[in-house]
Amino acid sequence: MQTILVAGDPVLTNLLVVGAGVLAMPLAMSRMGILLGTAIIIWSGLTAGFGLYLQTRCARYLDRGSASFFALSQITYPNAAVIFDAAIAIKCFGVGVSYLIIIGDLMPGVVQGFTSDVHGLQFLLDRHFWVTGFMLIVIPLSFLRRLDSLKYTSVIALISIGYLVILVVAHFAKGDTMQERGPIRVVQWAGIVPTLSSFPVIVFAYTCHQNMFSILNEISNNSPFRTTSVVTSSIGSAAAIYVLVAITGYLSFGNNVAGNIVGMYAPSVASTIGKAAIVVLVMFSYPLQVHPCRASVDAVLKWRPTGKSDSRNSSPSRAGSSPLLPSAKSNPPKGDGIGEVRFAAITTGIIVLSYIVAMTVSSLEKVLAYVGSTGSTSISFILPGLFYYKISSPDSQHHQRLMKEDDDGEVASDDEEDEGLLGGRSSKSGSWRRTLLRRLSLALAIYGFVVMVTCLISNTFFIVAH
Predict the structure, then answer these.
(1) pTM of whole model > 0.85?
(2) Among 158, 232, 316, 373, which is most buried by a count of CB atoms within 10 Å?
(3) Which of 265, 259, 258, 269 is nearest to 112 (CA)?
(4) How far is CA 144 from the centre of its chain?
(5) Cα–Cα distance between 281 and 289 in angstroms, integer?
(6) pLDDT tens for each residue of 358-388
(7) Chain centroid to CA 18
């Protein structure tokens, strides 16, 4: 389906450019300085993009349409699969709850921005009313099995992002915030602790890896060139937006900038629409968290301890005789392989639990700080790096099968006169690239562990300081 191919970029970009992340970039820039802040935004984009690229490489070792963290765990670290999927489920659940809390916090202000006369309609200022009301909208979207089904809502979310970016840039161009602007740091920084406290905000803003396998399963053309193009364009556009908003937002308010820059603008119709755009953005992002959360919960419930022989026989990896691109008949049923009753039960459980938490807790800042430090780093860096390093080992039977298929494909496409010295050079070059890629994947996993420890320590110091 061509629609999946077209929808792939907007869905992935929507996952990358989340509202909370882009609006917090000016504050991160104020603590790091313009030069260091820009460098870290670009570096974080590169490392996140490399993690996504490794996921596309790992998917090649699995049957078409069956790629998932659970499937990779079964052929790499089968007895640790439950830990990986539990971390993904907790992370996605926590982010989904935070979206509902944002809706409950912003909507009363949106109502007051459009009308100051709410006498007799006090329920419009109650966060519980808005959380309940918007749940009625996101529930049907959460029961959709395929990410491709959310392509239209993703377009609306992208429009909301575009409006927020235009709002920030327009206020900077008008210069109507200069009276409130504080000092500007270009090279200097605010110190090690403030910088480290903002570092997780930038790192986690790129986290969309939990949905990458679903996109690879649904996209019509999953060739290496196409998937790499999707990753490059999405990460590149996200990084450009982050740098643009970070610099213009920071230059508008200087060191006086707050965590949510839209809330700092003088009350107006434009700023009120900006708050409404944030609500729309997080509302349509909620189903995108339910999708991987549901898959991970299902994998946790199905998990059983297995030996090496069992994991080799039961894993969804390519058989020796399977084609490079299996037919659609080999794809899991309904796109995710979850039965109707099980699908409904897990989805209902996630929705009900997230609703209860959002209604009873008004702030998850401290909890999400630690969940994000562990869950996001695991999904973005540690798991892609470890999975590819393990599965691409020259001693791995899955790697040997894939290399044989690739070699057979090259031989079939080449004429006899093209073989020989040129073919030997190509083989050596390919082997050198695979070795380098494997080493870089291990470096990414190590980097993920370092980022996790750094974020946990910085969050602890930040919370204690406040």
Answers:
(1) no
(2) 373
(3) 269
(4) 19
(5) 13
(6) 998 766 556 666 676 778 888 899 999 999 9
(7) 9
